[in-house]
Amino acid sequence: MALSNASTLSSKSVHQTQTHSLISPSLSYQPSSSLVPAKTHVRSVHPITAVHAAEPAKNPVVVDKPLKKSSSPLVPAGSGKWTVESWKTKKALQLPEYPNESDLESVLQTIETFPPIVFAGEARTLEERLAEAAMGNAFLLQGGDCAESFKEFSGNNIRDTFRILLQMSAVLMFGGQMPVIKVGRMAGQFAKPRSDPFEEKNGVKLPSYKGDNINGDAFDEKSRIPDPQRMIRAYCQAAATLNLLRAFATGGYAAMQRVTQWNLDFAEHSEQGDRYQELAHRVDEALGFMAAAGLTVDHPIMTTTEFWTSHECLLLPYEQALTRLDSTSGLHYDCSAHMLWVGERTRQLDGAHVEFLRGIANPLGIKVSNKMDPKELVNLIEILNPNNKPGRITVICRMGAENMRVKLPHLIRAVRQAGQVVTWVCDPMHGNTIKAPCGLKTRPFDAILAEVRAFFDVHEQEGSHPGGVHLEMTGQNVTECIGGSRTVTFDDLGSRYHTHCDPRLNASQSLELSFIIAERLRKRRMGNQRLLF
Questions:
Q1: Taking the C-alpha atoms of 143, 320, 226 and 366 in order, what is their torsion angle to the nearest 10 degrees?
Q2: Which of 91, 321, 391, 512 could form a disulfide with 127 if both were Cys (CB 3.0 to 4.6 A apart)?
Q3: What digits encode the pLDDT tens for the residues 263-278?
Q4: Of 257, 242, 347, 339, which is closest to residue 296 (Cα–Cα)?
Q5: pLDDT tens digits, residue range 76-103?
């Protein structure tokens, strides 16, 4: 389920009702083949049943027939029969080369026997919510680590990131007066694409670090060898993270009555912390008014929250091993996350990642830079969403402010002319990475803010809907992005620079950005209201 007792709302009734059924048909385990196409094996079948938050069924069905092998030659993009392993007929970029095929095979067989991390019904509910964002009736807040790590895995870190997302969603919801869809880059965001397969230090050249589920970040030969056992550890960490997130979302921690208690200690006496406390007190007053008027504040919509998980679909053998056939819909879902996205480096129309994603029913994201041709975007959307289902596709733009103003209008017009329905989202992080004088990567807060403003300006100009933001951020008090009201400088970067990959906004910067976005949402709302009179 989406981490809440609330489930299965239609997109038309998202503002009115919530249901609380957790019982639904089983997700059924479907075995699949070896990573190596030249030497396939028929794996033994281990039926798995699980419940998900879809429509209740009296007789859960377990599908225990092996999935058919794909032996077809290379076929054009988006054509041909899809299977969970048809991606192997395509060119796959950014995948590691494991030195021991038998070890890899053993790990994939093991993961195939594991329960799904998320459930199909949850993904369907998220798709409905994203359809509302596409229509301008909701706003997506997607955020979390650049890359999760084994070293920094702790309950406190998970709690702090969840808490800052709650704070940001409260600010956005108050300003926009619309539902905020909370999606974490959590519980699975391990693998990272790299622009160079090798990195060099002091004359020593080693394979690049690709994420903790593939290899280690220590700069030595042993650490950089891809190890399939890391996939099992990543699965366990993702499952444990999701378990804690579910507890936070449904156990009272996310109750709106606790809005004043979500402030992080180090941000409590900052300018943004003070602004948040002022807003929280206004929410408290509104809740008090509701209670005095006889309106209940212990309804599940006030005491729980919906929260979903997402990550980049990069390590295809792992994603295939966690793909299940949903007996309710007859569709395949990648049960490693509720939402997956295809990255800038792996979105080739005839590539393996697009081939895999076109056959799963999860809501999908497409990362888009200034290099994206409008016609190519239309073709990619057609491949991934041939039925033009609202909520299925989220286009995540990462361009830099100037490119956003120049390139985004052409993409919006092309998609609109094709009659395609997508949710437009701004990723102001990846187009604004620079190298500091000390050699560390950083991102200026002013550049991030400028791209967000450009995103809103373009949508206002085009008459389209700014559907959300996608941020690399953390609840920790890190010093990785420069600027913000607390003024992190180049000299500060080394004091608390903890990221394993790209720089993240800290809690204070994230909250500051949310207040600025909330003000844009408020102005947009007021402008729309004036048009009605």
A1: -40
A2: 391
A3: 655 555 677 777 777 8
A4: 257
A5: 566 789 999 999 999 999 999 999 999 9
